[in-house]
Specification:
- By secondary structure, the protein is of the alpha/beta class.
- It has one domain.
- It is 32% helix and 14% strand.
- It contains eight helices and nine strands.
- Strands 3-9-8-4-5 form a five-stranded parallel β-sheet, with helices on both faces.
- The longest helix has 17 residues.
- The chain starts with a helix and ends in a 7-residue tail after the last strand.
- About 12% of the residues have low confidence.
- Bound molecules: zinc ion (ZN).
- Zinc ion (ZN) binds next to helix 2.
């Protein structure tokens, strides 16, 4: 089935990843929710600051995220990463207008400042030492099996784009590959809130390099908050301060609008 879908993607001209109706990566209608401003989600989640989020995880956005994560449409990293940048920035400087369309040249750093290059190992990257005092963006880790199956770590790719975007706007953040899944974790899909919390309990460990850092913890979607809460626990256990959380989207239970 997956093979068939991939084959269709390969053979047919590119169609909007959200609706499949227009011959573009993402049509205006499907891209619009990703360009909104960020807001804190409504439902409180124990153990984490309320996540800031941009869009509702429903309709075409579900298809768009699946196309990026599971079906290898890596070009979607740009609009998704921009939305994540909006949410992260809101946690640092308060809500701003939506990021709208990425500006030309936005990836150029101000005054030659170091920008993490795509694919660079940012943890311990000498070029990022200048921003050691600033907050660090850490993402909820995918299981090793999921990374192998997908052939990439999709969230990492989005964080890279978001951090580059923020650097371009003069926001002194960096990123750190600080979290690891400790072992096998069952897929969270289809589990209740309580089952999700139990499923991920103790599942994540943080690298010591995060000690003493202020962390903005990010994920693509907040569902029950269990994955974010477990990641926050691991970060605190390693001596980090989790100052904020941010996601691209929130499920209806959490939606702030
Ligand atoms: Zn569309």
């Amino acid at each position: 089935m997956r093979f068939l879908r991939d084959l269709i993607d390969l053979l047919l001209p590119e169609q909007c990843a959200g609706c499949g109706q227009e011959p573009v990566l993402l049509c205006d209608t499907c891209a619009r929710p990703l360009r909104a401003s960020a807001r804190p989600v409504r439902a409180a989640t124990a153990g984490i600051p309320p996540p800031w989020t941009v869009a509702a995880y429903e309709g075409p956005l579900r298809t768009i995220l699946a196309a990026y994560k599971e079906r290898g449409r890596t070009a979607l990293a740009a609009p998704l990463g921009e939305a994540l940048a909006t949410a992260v920035q809101a946690t640092l400087t308060g809500p701003s207008k939506g990021t709208a369309v990425p500006q030309k040249g936005a990836a150029v750093s101000p005054k030659g400042a170091a920008v993490p290059s795509k694919g660079a190992s940012t943890a311990g990257d000498a070029r990022l030492e200048d921003v050691q005092a600033g907050p660090v963006v850490v993402w909820v880790p995918s299981g090793r099996g999921a990374v192998r199956r997908r052939g990439h770590d999709p969230l990492r790719g989005l964080v890279e784009i978001a951090v580059r975007r923020l650097w371009a706007e003069g926001v002194p953040v960096s990123m750190m590959d600080a979290l690891r899944q400790r072992g096998r974790v069952a897929d969270q899909v289809g589990l209740t809130a309580r089952q999700r919390a139990a499923n991920v309990q103790g599942a994540v460990e943080a690298r010591p390099c995060v000690a003493g850092r202020r962390v903005v913890l990010v994920d693509d979607v907040v569902t029950t908050g269990a994955s974010l809460a477990e990641a926050a626990r691991a970060l605190r256990a390693a001596g980090a301060e989790v100052t904020a959380t941010a996601t691209i989207a929130a499920t209806p239970r959490h939606r702030p609008w």
